[in-house]
Amino acid sequence: MRFELSCERESMRITRIFLSLGVMLLVFWSLAPLVWVVISSISPRVELYSIPPHWIPHNPTLANYETVLLSGATYRSAPVGSSTAQFFVRGLVNSIIIALATTAIVGILSTFAGYAFARLAFRGKGPLFLGMLMLLAIPLWSSLITLYSIFSTLGLLDTLAGLTIIYATYQVPLAVWLMRIFFERLPIELDEAARVDGASTLTVLTRVLFPIALPGLISVLIISFLTAWNNFLFPLIFSFTENSRPVTVVVSQFFGFEEVQFDYMSAAAVVAMVPPVVFTLFFQKYLVSGLSAGAVKG
Amino acid sequence: MVAPIFFLLILFVWYPAANTLLTSLYFLNFKVSPQARFVGLANYATILMNRDFLAALRNTVFFLLILLLVSLPSALGGSLVLNEKFRGRTAIRAVAIAPWTLPPIVAGFLWRWILNGSYGVLNGLLWQLGVIHEYQVWLIQPVTAMILCGIVQAWRDIPFVMMIFLASLQSIPPDLYESATVCGAGAMQRFRYVTLPLLRPAIAVGLALETIYGLLGFDIIYALTGFDPSTKILNLLNYEVAFRLLDFGLASALSYILLLGGAAVGYFYIRRIYRGYAF
Predict the structure, then answer these.
(1) Which of A15, A23, A172 sits opposite B8 (nearest CB)?
(2) C-beta separation of A267 from A67 below 8 A
(3) Is residue B125 part of a domain?
């Protein structure tokens, strides 16, 4: 008996060691690149381009942020007289508008549709759901090529409205599916009790189920916001000027493929990372439940 | 209640997709003329015999292989760590999710800077540790570049797969481990005979999703190597043909070839989801 106990303790110790190693590895792998870009963003160019690298800058500076956000050097594809900062700040504003608008539209549409798929019976429900789900898995080129012509006809190319419509449309399938899962987790007795009291379908949704499904909706909203904020391919195709160019595309333009301004790029990257990082820190619980809901259900 | 979303989907997804299928049967190159000319399956024949297509196909397969080999085992390892109870677990989990929340294009640039041949920090680190004696231009050698693209894509995707695995791990009843321990199973045996079998569905989902992500990968490769032929996967080729060469006919045909590949993987995944519902 005593021998077994000491054996158990021994294996506990080995587990602890492996665990600590695992945690350290996980933190280093996930965090080191982010830490390095933050360090780069506060390094003067001379130190940034030193060999070997200055792990901690000797003369840290906020000059790169000042350039990117306020004053600005000459921007690669800018008309004469305009600055990096103008383009970058405009990109930020565009991104915020598009991401918020997308999130609002997706939130409203997916709440109603998710509820309908979870609780109501209607004609063509199965095929419609399948047709929607397919979009989770297929490459989008087949739609995008013609969409370009459609947008050109509708005058939606290079507009914030155009990008919002595409983002919302392509975000809807995942959002509806998640909302359906969240509604299905609620006991059907809630609906029945409300119905007995004479509530209409709409009342059941808005007054009874919605408040309880709110955490699920928050997950969907956060994922929608992040997806819209992070998107790069759609604006690369559908935006040509600062009228609609979001921050992801502006950041990519700090990267001329010949000459790269890594100092400005780092500062710009850090600013573009702020919303995602804030969401991760404050809404981690919702993010995790959103990410894993689909997988557990499926 | 579902009408608005189907209005959007029909107008901006299904109708365009059908029209693209039609376009794939036409010669339509805006650099030549805005006039479309019916050519039957000629576009498909052109693509399947094209050297760039075959190179991109090979790159795609190689890229997927690296991506899956790096991301799935790492995600499994990470999820096992996060499934243990220790102080600060919530904070560590937030740190572990971080790479997934960044804009992929920014993640790509971040790594391009780290891998930079003249001042990159990877060179600095390896040089200071004495692993290399002079700085290397990592992204210039074709095979190395493709491997690195796969690793960076994995860096971004791992958290997502990890959360899927973690959710599955947390649904395993603790009694199973207790009984296994009582029966004399060691840590390795508990993993082999309890964890792994119960994790199988989650691994299947992770595999399918990661394959789809890989096929749709664009931003990270674009940031790392641009349209360099040695790392150009089909998804980048499709963009190039459509929006740089402006050959919409050819690009449409290519998009349907790509769609076929995506659908083959997606079929399994979608069927899984769809089966869970009774209509």
Answers:
(1) A172
(2) yes
(3) yes
